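QA checklist item 7 of 12: single-chain prediction sanity check.
[x] sequence parsed
[x] length recorded as 254
[x] structure emitted
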Amino acid sequence: GFGGGGNALGMQAQAPAAVADFDASMSNVAGPGGEQREDLFFYKLPNVDLGLGDRSYRVMFSMKSPYKNIYTWDLTDSTANNVEYRGIPEGPQDVWHALKFKNTSGQPLTTSVATTFDTGEIIGQDMLGYVPNGAETELRINKSLDIRAEGDEAELDRVRGAVKNRDNYPIYDLVTIKGQLQATNMKSTTIAIRIKKDLTGEMTDAADGATISKTTKGLTQMNPTSRLIWTRDLKPGERMTVNYQYKLYVRSAN
């Protein structure tokens, strides 16, 4: 579990009942530790004696780590199968409140369900993947209803039959698409937001300061693939608008 409400978080191996500092109430707070064996990590529980019908709850380890609150808006690719454009779904999009932190436990965090607490109350639960010692990760808490996010894409230009076969029959059209994403902070505090957009096609502009990286997904296909990431701080009531433009080959309509 993760305790919120400050600038450091504490982690427990499993989610207890609504208690702010459950591991402090256990007699073996330090835990038995563990050891790395190739790609696996083993925990040991020495001297465990259980009678018939007995139950045991053990804290494997605990840690404290600085963390940051971040709001994430991830948009999937608007194009399927590299050449089948489908667009961005209409209406409000999901924005997630997450915690970004570093594993300072001295051992890996193995894949498990992680529960987030704030002053003893459960505020979220999500699957936390394997995190090596010293690595950074993010844990989703819940969807944020106070961040309004909407996106839209529109066709600007189309070159019909840009690619033809040997019989001069059109196979692919070259389409230019303009996209716009808007996120509005309806909270009473400043937030850090990260927008990530995966797309199929060739970028044709600077995308309002986004970090643009080409991915390997489209190396052997008709269109390349890219990932755009914007990271900004939004004040209460502030709206951010970002624009991007790209072109891609789609199956010809002729």
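[x] summary fact logged: Confidence is low (pLDDT under 50) at residues 12-20.
[ ] second reviewer sign-off
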